[in-house]
Amino acid sequence: MSASPSPAPAGRRLTWPWFLVVVVAYLAILQGLGALIGVDRGSGDSQFPTTESVVRNGVIPIGLSVLFGAAVVTWLGWWRSVLTYRAPVRRWVRFVPISMLVVAVMAVNYPNLADQPASLVLALVAMTALVGIGEELMFRGIGVQVFKRAGLSEGQVALWSSVVFGVVHVSNAFGEGAQAVLQAVIVSTSGYFFYLCLRVGGVLLLPMLVHGMWDFSLVSNTVGADPKTSPGMVLPILLQVVLIVLVIVKRRTVEPAAHPEDPAVAPAHR
Fold first, then answer.
1. pLDDT at residue 132 in the model
2. Distance CA 26, CA 66 (A)
């Protein structure tokens, strides 16, 4: 007697080419609106020199991209499957979100933030929180579901959702030049780590939290009229290298060991 087939996933169908269209629209909101309402950052080293620059260049366009992602999920009827993702992993994978959260807290440039107005710091918190919510909703939420529903294995889902996530960041080349290409490669690996966070927690909230904290620690070094980079900035770089090596070495042991009594892996009875 063969096992009964899994029920069809709930909601509308979204193929990967249409997902790319959704991603382009998402980018149009971020880049297009940012260009329309953004303010000049000046010629200094600061990415966000003032509260106004954080709000107009970050909070508003990113906030609207979050609303766009939420509208797409609502139209698809995917909220339950987007917010929860049941695909267990082995215990060692827990090191990924734990280490990223610890390093994010340690790498925050607290002296630089202490020199800034409270309004700028609060705007930075809001912006990075929205980045975590919006990008995880789009790529580990919608993106993972698109590739999973297309019948791809977990490894393929991780690969393609991370590649799209990285390629999207090439759009930063409009403001940051050729270094955005390198950033896209690095971001792709980060996307894979956020995917592992989703697997560990089983809920989208965990990669949202890790992503938001990670970005907050990085951007805390580039805000204010005269930002001074903290020595702690080396910690995210070192951890990125450690996680890349760890995942390469242990890539074959991400999935939990199959048990003979598991109906998903046990041979069918005749």
1. 97
2. 9
Distances (CA, A) of 192 to 80, 92, 112, 154, 155: 22, 15, 30, 11, 10
In the chain, domain spans = 16-252
Which string of DSSP letters, residue by residue, matches 151-217? T--HHHHHHHHHHHHHHHGGGGHHHHTTHHHHHHHHHHHHHHHHHHHHHHHSBTHHHHHHHHHHHHH
Q: Give the whole-angstrom CA distance, residue 238 versus residue 119.
A: 31
Tokens of 96: 């990924």
**Average pLDDT value for residue range 118-127:** 97
Amino acid making up residue 170: V
Per-residue pLDDT tens for 208-217? 999 999 999 9
Percentage of the chain modeled with pLDDT above 90: 72
Q: How confident is the model at residue 181 (pLDDT cuts 50, 70, 90)?
A: confident
The CA angle 175-63-140, to the nearest 5 degrees, is: 85
What distance in Å separates the CA atoms of residue 208 and residue 66, rounded to the nearest whole number? 12
Residues whose CB falls within 8 Å of the CB of residue 175, separated by 6 or more in sequence, listed in order: none
Token representation of residue 242:
């450690």
Q: Residue length, the chain?
A: 270
| Phi, psi of 103, deg, nearest 5 | -65, -35
